[in-house]
Amino acid sequence: MSVKYTEDHEWIKVDGDTGTVGISPYAANALGDVVFVELPEIGLELSKGDEAAVVESVKAASEVYAPVGGQVTEVNAALEDAPETVNASADGGGWFLKIKIADASELGDLMDADAYAEFCKGL
Amino acid sequence: MTDLKTTKLHAKHIALGAKMVPFAGYDMPVQYPLGVMGEHKHTRGKAGLFDVSHMGQCFIIPQDGQFETAARALEKLVPADIQSLAPGHIRYSQFLNSQGGTLDDLMISRLGFEGHTHKLYLVVNAGCKDADYVHMLTHLPDDVFLDYKDDDLSLLALQGPKAAQVLGALCPQVLNLTFMTHTDAPIMLPSGPTFIHVSRSGYTGEDGFEISVKHEDVLALTEALLAHDDVEMIGLGARDSLRMEAGLCLYGHELTPDVSPVEAGLIWSIPKHRRGADAGYLGAARVAADLADKSSKRLVGILPDGRAPAREGTQIHDADGNVIGEITSGGFGPTVGGPIAMGFVARPFAKPGSAVNLIVRGKPRPAKTVKMPFATHNYYRGN
Asked: Is the Cβ pair A58, B332 closer than 8 Å?
């Protein structure tokens, strides 16, 4: 199982052909207190870079983009009643959705944990 | 970035770990490490300290030393009654353009101490202050003198249920103030004795004070207040969510050069004898016309069903999909515990409890209009 990161601060944890998607602790911290999460319909087909979910803090609304293309197979409905989980556990219980990865080669464009940490340092 | 102005507390904000953002030409703290939610709740629960030194402070001084001269002059530019303003009292009003749109909203105080009761003290918005000064210079008669204090005075706000106890320990005179009154009082700071101008007023809906203090004393006063366990610094993020819950207008959002004070629900700030087209201030005809015209729009509070916030610019529709208005401020109310918004709607929908739809990310979401404030005002009006 590997975790990859986008420049928009999403992460995707890959297990076989399923990817679990969330936002990084860096992004959750930058957003501040999350008060609302809008999740996609199960079955929705996403292309890499499509808007997959919305996350809103007290300050502003932000989009969560699909790190790779695929079909939404599951969403973390618990976030609808407890959006603060995104702040408490951005890389764990605060996951947003799972997708069936359409083309695993798209993962090659993403950063690994070390490269992402380096990327954040430069911001 | 290099063009941004700074307040005298700029280095203090950075030392406290504030996240700084450009606001009205100033580099200002939007939040501290406590975060917007924590800062908001701290203000409602204890006391929050705000640096609002970017706001404009100025005096209107009549050359003949007569208060009536200053009052009559300012009454040409604002709908409020200034002549009846007693020494030590404060009134909220607006500068209007010739079409009756709002150029700024402001606090007007008549000084209370012996020998100075002919002077008016104004606090105006940071983003409007340069234009306000030009507006006053253009329209005020020659027998009043304007004294801008940006180079001399900082401004702090201490807000929340503990504000009186905290400031009262340093300056007992403030405990005698009721909401919308002010005083000038001596205070002993580590930097030495000085005078502060304290108003019992604010922008959060809580009891509290706005404190005008000399630039050279503002850091010492800030540190003296922050030394209290009940006081935290609060940034512009929580200032916005606090004022929204209190149902208070923000210039550039609810108030613009197109919006009249009647449309913005500020008729309470215009006394009956100043509501006619012949009241004698710039924009009076529009105020009278909007009062008579039942078709003009009105500012309302809006409570979305569910948890999705509706932000500024969100369209408001009726049940049939017709556009009936737009959100001017919207977000999450930490004390309310859910989304809140303010916006203009067509007059028939201004009645509290009207069902409307908010178009958020293309989808209509049900909401209803409500009477503001969203969070109860806790002003101190005396025992």
From this structure: yes
